[in-house]
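=== RUN LOG ===
request id: a7f3
mode: sequence -> structure
chains: 1
length: 356
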Amino acid sequence: MSQAETILPAAGAAREPFFSWPPLPFALWLCGFYACWLAIVAGFDYWATVAAHWPIAAAMAAGSYFAGSTPMGGGTVGFPVLVLLFNEPASLGRSFGLAVQSIGMVSASIYIIAAGRRIDWSLLKPALVGSLIATPLGAAFIAPYAPDLGVKLLFATLWASFGVIHFAKLKMIVTPEGARRPEPALDRRIGFAIGLAGGVVASLTGVGIDMMIYAAMVMFYRADIKVAIPTSIILMAFTSVVGIASNVALSAFGPPQYALPPDVFHNWLAAAPVVAVGAPFGAVIVNRLPRKSTLLIVSALCIGQFVWTLVQEREAGWPLLAALGGLLLLNLFFLFLFRTGERRAAGERVESIKAR
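=== RESULT ===
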């Protein structure tokens, strides 16, 4: 078996029909989840709570679709809805994002793996290790002390940069196809660094690590977007489980600053049954529809939430300059990744020609 074949399993090589029955492991997961959810809601009479939180369930219907079809976790919709629309604190948006993604992104991941989708394990495995280390540390030592405004601006700036670079480089992002050749030594270093940095960011905002590994893959490695998106989904799913588990443990055994607001659980009850099928639905559709249109819509939403944040917070002076400066620096970094990736790809083509 060649190195490239370790990324591209034979099961994912054939073109899928538009509709097919879900893989058995995924069907069993759904049955188990809905049985547990129903037992909680019916057993503790949470029907009124679920009904009262229908707005977040409605928002996550769209959010979970984008979570499964793009490198955006469901928290990318849940965070601004709760924080900007419902005026909840950033800590609630972060914790809800991790909690809801622990169902939606996990559900999408189970479907992706069971369906034999292409995954870049060479980069993903060290990223999982980095996330396992950094996410609990960020939850314990950084997130409780981060200012609310700082978290909002960090979230807004990260995803606005995603939108800007996609409008600027969309054609180049969607062009590469097929599996890349793993580079074990380089992949371990980059993957682990992504896990560390992304774990801290996710502990603050509930998302972000998925965008980081996606950016490295499509910009630096010039990887196929249909490999990059499933890889980013699995990393975000793992980080979400680690993150919400860390938050719950700290809330149960730590001092008062770690306490989880009750609305995290209430919103989760309403949204979880929606995202359990919404995110996998996005993972199904992304392999069957043109990629450009979905990414353009998502990019517009990312830029829109940045403007929305600045307008709602009515910030001027240093916070505004920091947000705009961060947006500029991130996009300059993305351009650097692109140019480095282009030089690497050109060098590989020259070596391939020489080898012939």
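=== NOTES ===
Residues 318-355 form the longest helix (38 residues).
Residues 1 and 270 are 46 Å apart (CA to CA).
=== END ===
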